[in-house]
Amino acid sequence: MNIELPIVKHPFSTLGKKIERLCRKACYDFELLQDIDKLAIALSGGKDSLTLLYLMKAIVGRGFPNMELFAIHVEGSFSCGPSLHQNFLSSICKELDIKLVVKKVDIKQEALECYSCSRQRRTIIFNAAKECGIHTVAFGHHLDDNNQTLLMNLFHKAEFASLMPKIKMIDYDVTIIRPLIYVEEKDIINFAKQNNFARITCQCPLGQNSKRKITNQLIDEIEKEYPHVRKNLSKAGLIYGSKKALNK
Q1: C-alpha separations of 246 from 154, 230, 239, 242, 243 in Å
Q2: Residue 135, strand partner residues
Q3: Helix (H) or strand (E) holding 136
Q4: What distances in angstroms separate CA 42 from CA 138, 156, 201, 235, one per listed residue?
């Protein structure tokens, strides 16, 4: 099956410039690219990870240290992501001069469960990164992911805890960074539409009815009364998380 490749070109247009500015701000504010010679990008092939891939290629070596970029893709019938043909991602990474590492996971549909599936995929990504001598992995989590995580932790565990822009995974000797943490999902969606990869969506059968999806719908309802709720939730989570990290 032939799949037309995205048409992303740098320097970006207006929307791309906005996303790049926010990505650069996050990398600067949280020192995400400091002291790194190799960086792995967790590449599912969906809109978020592909946007991250293009953004990292755009900013590395331009205002930030130059470093070798890798993309790590976990392939599996029911894993999170769009279940793309490997040749599609290989062609993109070849065009960007980014080395693609592909690992496989075998998860049966009857055993699907978001938390355990996510942990398994992350472990595979971390191990693949270390095999390449990489100790920093970038994930494509954005502002809305941050808000959903904050509310889910609050509702389920009575914890005011959002996603950290940078966190050391001690057990794996790997640091996670999230350069898109300031970027709203709606901007990523529009960026993907402009550049011909919006049609690529998650194929997980649990994705449309997940707690994360339900939480986002709740935020949509709150936004009707409080128009700035998304940015305010994200800001509150990041401020609290930064203070908590400093007090450790």
Answers
A1: 21, 25, 11, 6, 5
A2: none
A3: strand 136-138
A4: 6, 27, 16, 25
Structural domain for 211, as ranges? 14-246
Helix axes 211-223, 229-246, angle to 10 degrees: 120
Which stretch of 65-79, 92-106, 125-139 has the lowest confidence by average pLDDT? 65-79
Would 141 be classed as within a structural domain? yes
Residues ≥6 apart with Cβ < 8 Å to 60: 33, 39, 66, 67, 69
Instruction: Give me the chain's average pLDDT, please.
Output: 89
Amino acid type, 66: N
Q: What is the pLDDT of residue 198?
A: 83
Q: How many residues does the chain have?
A: 248
Query: At 108, is the pLDDT very low, low, confident or very high (cuts 50, 70, 90)?
Result: low
Sign, Cα dihedral of 175, 132, 76, 94: positive
Q: How confident is the model at residue 146 (pLDDT cuts 50, 70, 90)?
A: very high
CA distances, 168 to each of 10, 58, 153, 200, 226 (Å): 31, 25, 20, 30, 34
What is the domain-level CATH number for residue 88? 3.40.50.620
Residue 195 pLDDT more than 90? yes
Q: Is residue 46 part of a domain?
A: yes
- How far apart (Å, rounded) are the C-alpha atoms in residues 223 and 228? 7
With a CB cutoff of 8 Å and minimum separation 6, the contacts of 6 are 50, 54, 92, 195, 196, 197
- One-letter amino acid at 239 equals I
Domain count for the chain: 1
The first and second tokens of residue 10, run together, are 């740098």
Instruction: Please report whether residue 236 resides in a domain.
Output: yes
The verdict on residue 8 lying in a domain is no
